[in-house]
Amino acid sequence: MSMGCERYGAIIMFFFITILLCVVGFLEAGGGSAVQSSRIIRWRKKHKQSQQEQPAGPQEPTRCNVYEGSWVYDSSYPMYDSTTSCPFIRKEFDCLKYGRPDRNYLKYRWQPNNCTLPRFDALDFLKRMQGKKIMYIGDSLSLNNWQSLVCLLYAGVPNANLSWQTNTSISTVTFQDYGVSVIMFQSHYLVDTVKEPMGRVMKLDSLNDGALWKTMDVLIFNTWLWWLVRGPRQQWDYIQEGAKISKDMDRMDAFHKAMITWAKWVDTDVDTAKTKVFFQGISPSHYNGTEWNEPGLRNCAKETEPMSGSTSPSGPPPALSVVKEVLSSIKNPVSLLDITAMSKLRKDAHPSSYNGFKGMDCTHWCIAGLPDTWNQILYSELIA
């Protein structure tokens, strides 16, 4: 009975398809109503067009956001051995030299969600940057970042001829075989701080050091760490805007005004056809355990692993909003090295007490370590 039904159904389907083909042929030959003919022709054209629009092969991926991702364990990391391949790490950042017992913090690689960062290639970097000057400008977090790049390059070309020059505010390492200079310029606030009879005056609308900065080929700026410092460690006695001098003001407002001064300098003084400009985002610290779901902790001393996932429980610092707002107002091309979110996950990557001062440091970063990833991103931006 079942086979009979199937045979009967097949015969009906055969006759139905035959009749349908005859009708279509009749309509295309000019028979039938104009409306029916128009509908079928439109459907056939649309079907043919949709087939033509189908991609013939893989499509080009959209540009990857390298700042969205997570930390993954990778046994091929770190990218160099800081104990043998970089003999000039400062005592603030040399965690292994000063007794850090765990090593897993060195084994994490940043993995963007939709692509892979190119591994840092020192020789390729030096060849591409041949004859150029790269300057980091900012506070000790810029120094941290500068030290990382020097180590990445030296470890990759260990037999390179180097020269090293240092004074009170500028340190320069030159890879002489390639004519590449990597320079650190210390500037806590970017704007000027001037010694006057009344004391040290920070001038929110003055930026005289820019005369040197704009001669560089690559600039990486950073400021924020010192804006909230008060008491004996504060680097100024008075703050000035225009003709107005005061003992203090709202620090976030002062930071915003200084950033506006810097932004105007970028637009008016920097030839961005020659000089690439980057701003290093806000680097987070880890002194409050609630930021990684461990209330009660007041430092990073026992942290040996990064947070999992792509975001930390606490949001971005307010200073980052100021940075992004100001950068969006600049007419010249400036790239934000948006390292805040990825760095907030790395509660494990600070020196803690393993530094030359033996103090608890959950602000700066071990080298080798996290800043190598910052420079890996810088490398990807420069070769893009």
Automatic annotation (TrEMBL):
One of its GO terms (cellular component) is Golgi apparatus. It is found in: Membrane. It is a single-pass membrane protein. Residues 117-380 form the Trichome birefringence-like C-terminal domain. It comes from the Eukaryota. Keywords: Membrane, Signal, Signal-anchor, Transmembrane, Transmembrane helix. Transmembrane segments: none annotated. Residues 63-115 form the Trichome birefringence-like N-terminal domain. Coiled coil: none annotated. Residues 1-29 form the signal peptide. Its main location: membrane. GO terms for molecular function: O-acetyltransferase activity. Belongs to the PC-esterase family. TBL subfamily. This is Protein trichome birefringence-like 38. It comes from Punica granatum (Pomegranate). The gene is LOC116212561.
